[in-house]
Each structure stands twice: as C-alpha cells, then as structure tokens.
Design brief:
acyltransferase, 6 helices, membrane, binds coenzyme A, five-stranded mixed sheet, globular, GNAT_dom
Length: 182
C-alpha cells in the first residue's frame, strides 16, 4: 500500500499538537502522526498485541471507538509511527489528559498503551513515542505526566527521563458472562 499523507487522512486530533522535535529525529522512512480513522487497516491492533491480549472487534467497532475518543476533544491523544514504504503502523502510544479540581484546576497526562512492533524494537521508536506524548501533555498544560509499567521496563522509561514514584494499585473486575459497556 503506498504511503498516505496526513492531508488524505481523518485524524484523531490536529497533527500540529505533536512537537516537531520528536518528528525531526525520526528516520526519513518513518512518519509520526495522530491515529487515523483508517488505521485499523494499517495494523494498529497487531502492534498493540505485543503489549497484551487484543481481541479484534472488527473494523466497524474499531471506528466507533475511534469516534468515541474524538468526541471528547483535547482529551485523547493517540499517536502512531508509520513505515512509509509499507504504509503500516510500527509503533503506537496514547496520552490522555485528566482535568482536575485541585492544583488550580490543573491537568495530568496519563501515558498508556506503548508498543513497538517486534521487528522494530531497539531502534529508538519507543523513545520517540514517549518524547512526543510527553510534549503533547506538557503543551496541554499538564503539571505532570505519569504511567504504569512492569519492573523490566523501568530502565526504558528512565532513559526517557521518567523516575520511579510511589506504587500502582489495581483491582480487576470478576469474570462476567456479559461485560457492561459505557
Ligand atoms: C518497551 C518498548 C516500548 C521500548 O521501545 P523500543 O523502541 O524497543 O526502545 P528504544 O529503542 O526507544 O529504547 C530507548 C532506550 O531504552 C533502552 N531500553 C529499551 N527497553 C529496555 C529494557 N526493557 N530494559 C533496559 N533498557 C531498555 C534502550 O536500550 C535504549 O537505550 P539507549 O538510548 O542507551 O540506546 C518496546 O520494547 C515494546 O513495545 N515492548 C513490548 C510492549 C511493552 O512492554 N510496552 C510498554 C508497556 S509499559
């Protein structure tokens, strides 16, 4: 599939929100941009599957989720790195902005779902994704950007300028025959 320029895509948010620094440092064969409404076809779920279990909901349901994220403006920033020769996604990540009542109505950026295709790991794509998401978070006015990770990924996030703080708590819902949907 030939490379599709941003101008031909329906993007989750304006590409200008992505700081130039992260984009400029990428190899010219790669392109960093917001998630697009047709990225189901560019292997978005396949890249995410290096991170955890991914159940393919089908393209229509995927697009409905894309539209639900976009319906909350200035909140969800999902980005992708595309291999231009193949027009395929090779890295993904998201930051979402939580608006608070404390800290003078401050905001916090939450980084989620960072994944780099196995064939492309170790080439600084993860670093570029984190740099771009942190820039989006800070440019949105967030006073901090936070994330959860496994012990084995701590060194990666330290290389990205993050430091270990506090602990994560989790409670998984019990198995249910039918999961309620918002
Ligand atoms: C973790 C992950 C996102 C890192 O992305 P990547 O593109 O492979 O990493 P980068 O090439 O950008 O690494 C940047 C630096 O971190 C280091 N690094 C990366 N992963 C590391 C690890 N697990 N342990 C130690 N150092 C690591 C790299 O060596 C590099 O160091 P350098 O600048 O000194 O060369 C990627 O390997 C991945 O998708 N893993 C599977 C899914 C996952 O665990 N996601 C994170 C969920 S919290």
């Amino acid at each position: 599939m030939p490379f599709t320029a941003d101008s031909e895509l329906d993007l989750l948010f304006p590409a200008e929100h992505i700081p130039d620094e992260a984009r400029k440092q990428l190899h010219p064969d790669l392109h960093l941009r917001p998630l697009a409404s047709t990225d189901y076809r560019r292997g978005h779920l396949s890249v995410l599957s290096v991170l955890t279990i991914v159940t393919d909901p089908g393209e229509d349901a995927w697009v409905a989720q894309f539209n639900a994220l976009r319906a909350a403006p200035r909140t969800y920033y999902s980005i992708v790195i595309v291999d231009k020769a193949l027009d395929r996604i090779v890295a993904v990540g998201t930051v979402f902005v939580e608006r608070k009542f404390l800290r003078g109505l401050g905001s916090v950026g939450h980084i989620e779902d960072i994944a780099v295709d196995k064939s492309q790991q170790g080439k600084k794509l993860g670093l570029r994704i984190i740099q771009a998401l942190t820039g989006i978070s800070e440019n949105s006015g967030c006073y901090k950007t936070i994330l959860n990770c496994s012990d084995s990924n701590i060194p990666f996030y330290q290389k990205c300028g993050y430091e270990k703080k506090e602990n994560e708590m989790a409670k998984y819902a019990p198995e249910r025959s039918r999961t309620p949907r918002l």
